[in-house]
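User: Hello! I'm new to structural biology and keep hearing that structure can be predicted from sequence alone. Could you demonstrate with NusG-like N-terminal domain-containing protein? Please show me the input and the output so I can see what each looks like.

Assistant: Of course. The first part below is the input, the amino acid sequence of NusG-like N-terminal domain-containing protein. The second part is the output, the predicted structure written as tokens.
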Amino acid sequence: MMKLQGGLLQWSPSSLIPSINTAIKSTRLSISACVVERNHQLTARERRQLRNERRESKSGYSWREEVEERLIKKPKKRYASWTEELNLDTLADAGQQWWVVRVSRVRGHETAQVLARALARQFPEMEFTVYAPAVQVKRKLKNGSISVKPRPVFPGCIFIRCILNKEIHDAIREVEGVGGFIGSKVGNTKRQINKPRPVDDSDLEAIFKQAKEEQEKADSEFDEGERAEEEASLALQKALASNSDGTETVESLAETKPERAPRKAALATETKAKKKKLAAGSTVRVLSGTFAEFVGNLKKLNRKTAKATVGFTLFGKETLVEIDINELVPEIQS
């Protein structure tokens, strides 16, 4: 805006800004209104083409690829109807696979043997494998023999590899001790069944590996226990048989081992001793075995395992030995 003051022409641009802004706003409104009016005039096909053109104009974006990826990720229906999904004969299409069967947690190993015999009798031409993963635990008995008992790795489950159909499925279900297959429920509200679900080969390989590792661990623990027991017995025998000074050995043995009493007196003493109960801290005498007629102090008594820990004074030192309770009697002080 120009003003004439004292012969000077003054220019003020601030006065024109509101008019310019108003013109710009009105222009924008008129353009947007035209676009909206034009979109209303377009058909649905033309609007879709316009939207696709805008998508393609963006760099690095392809809406066709996005739609194709969504269609690929969408799972396809395996069965045409729900009745076809309930048909167990369709399980045979995949060939031989591993299946999991529920059994008793206590008698799982016996059930696996019964199942194998039943399948071999009813389907002699069928190839199958029954696998009950177990660790063979070794235990040494009192008489020196070794007992081996299986300890299941997965209690309550056994694995079978075969071509499964409805006939074989029903035959396995009827075996005594079998509780059914592990799977998932299929169907609808009208009818539902528990359809068996196969196990992947990779999972079975992991199960084989776990069973092998546990078996090696159990064998190593048994071997270590055997070696420790042998070393303890050898050390005790060496301590009893040899010493640096022979005179000390004879004297210590003479002090520890009492003189034999007459037979009648010994029998009377034993009958009196049996009446007296064993107790920790009491003095006991060994009746038979390596330490027969030795007298020692009862340190610990375990009636469940029928074992007692007795301390003997050998070569001036106390040695602890584990002896059967039946070989001990309380020593009666005369």
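User: So the tokens describe the shape?

Assistant: Right, they're a compact way of writing down the 3D structure. Reading them back into a model, for example: Confidence is low (pLDDT under 50) at residues 1-29, 244-251.
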